[in-house]
């Protein structure tokens, strides 16, 4: 008997799409241990291996690019516009070629987060497709290009591609997608880690009374000179930076820990970040306190922020405060807020059950 074959498209626009897909695939694999999985993405293979259990094949393909970024917070609007025009010049050819590939690989089900080209190809190959994401690229580009005639045509093409999906799963919290056909809201989805705080304290020489803050802005870098951040008694930072630099005593590189990121996040007291599904939801599930810097032009942001403020102890900081580390009043305010319980990521089971129903 042939093993069912699941073809998964993961956007490489940051790490948030992988953070949504990985726990669903792991739960699905627990129910279908013989499942054959192909991952179409350009994300680093070691990262995929750390987050997704079991064997899988990597197909290094760029199926979408989301938006071109200047850095972790700023979209390069002109470059994004040019990239979409170029990508869609040969959209029909791309979709037909990918459809043939899916047929040749004998794919039984397509799972997309959220390359619309893959959804279109699955439709042309007559293969069922389930999409999962808290956003979609049609609504994102509409937020940046509401009046450009050439982009309106591209937006229409993207919406038609998404409309071909059998289901589009919207994990809590998702941006509104009123024009999306076959949309189905589900619960939160997050990678959960294990509390390794005692191990971290031993590695870094911290005491039980010290606070530990993780600084992470997702998978797209933002240059910050952490060496100028002020020293505060009993406060230590974990930052994603080169381990061979000379750091102040209260600054520590993530590389020094040799631990999975999800376990590090589960072990700290507070997260300093930007609005993004992966970090926001993981923090809420672990009942972490959160400081976040705004990215006000990102169309998904208000819905992420509104949800986080309801379920977690959180506070906004300014961009200049992030660059200089001058946000202690906001951090103290977060610690003084009433504690809130962690959120349950029950969307993992909902999504995996739906995928399993298509594979049985």
Structure description:
There is one protein chain. The protein is globular and about 60 Å long. The mean pLDDT is 95. 40% of the residues lie in helices and 16% in strands. The chain is of the alpha/beta class and 360 residues long. The chain folds into 2 domains: 5-189 and 346-359, Glycogen Phosphorylase B (Rossmann fold); 197-336, Rossmann fold (3-Layer(aba) Sandwich), CATH 3.40.50.2000. A 7-stranded parallel sheet has the order 3-2-1-4-5-6-7, sandwiched between helices. Strand 2 (36-40), helix 2 and strand 3 (57-59) form a beta-alpha-beta unit.
Secondary-structure element sequence?
Answer: EHEHEHHEHEHHEEHEEEHEHEHEHHH
* Terminal residue distance: 13 Å
CATH topology of the largest domain: Rossmann fold
**Percent strand:** 15-25%
Rg = 21 Å
Q: What would CATH call the homologous superfamily of the largest domain?
A: Glycogen Phosphorylase B
- Secondary-structure arrangement, i.e. CATH architecture of the largest domain: 3-Layer(aba) Sandwich
Give a brief rundown of this model.
This protein is 40% helix and 16% strand. By secondary structure, the protein is of the alpha/beta class. Strand 12, helix 11 (301-311) and strand 13 (314-317) form a beta-alpha-beta unit.
